[in-house]
Amino acid sequence: MNNSEGKPIVVVQDLMRQTMRRTASPVTVVTAGTGDDARGITIGSFTSASLDPPLITFNLSRGARMHAILPFTDRFVVHVLGDHQADLSDHFALPDLDGKTQFATVDHSLDEGIPVLVDCQAIFYCTVHNVFPVGDHSLIVGLVERVSSRVNGDPLVYYDRAYRRVTQTIGRVDGH
Fold first, then answer.
1. How far apart are CA 139 and CA 136, in angstroms?
2. Counted domains in the chain
């Protein structure tokens, strides 16, 4: 199969994958479900979508265990990891762990039964606003109900197939 420019789709997919690896993104863990159904998953596609109303989005693979829970729950929590939390990203990226095992060794509290990770850079408490099928993923849109964030510290960033920390400011910082 070819795209509109006549290039094979596989070539375009490979180029897209290579290009996206060179695009920095925040590292987040999304938690949802309660009790034995609680799960977490590492997400690299988190972004804000709107301030009015306050909406966030991320992509969720249809093959992920979280896909059986998240589109059908009312609430979820997005944790923006700090630059000291790469281990949590790796932990929640393991696809074969059941929910109970995921949280057994991870510091967390519960907010209306949903696991909330400790010491994150920012936490967004959301309700499911909409879910859209997009290729082999679902686009999850969350309505942000509450936010908590740390004043100090830096977020964990994923760039060029590795975790990074923000280390240098380039340009203006005065809000313009």
1. 10
2. 1
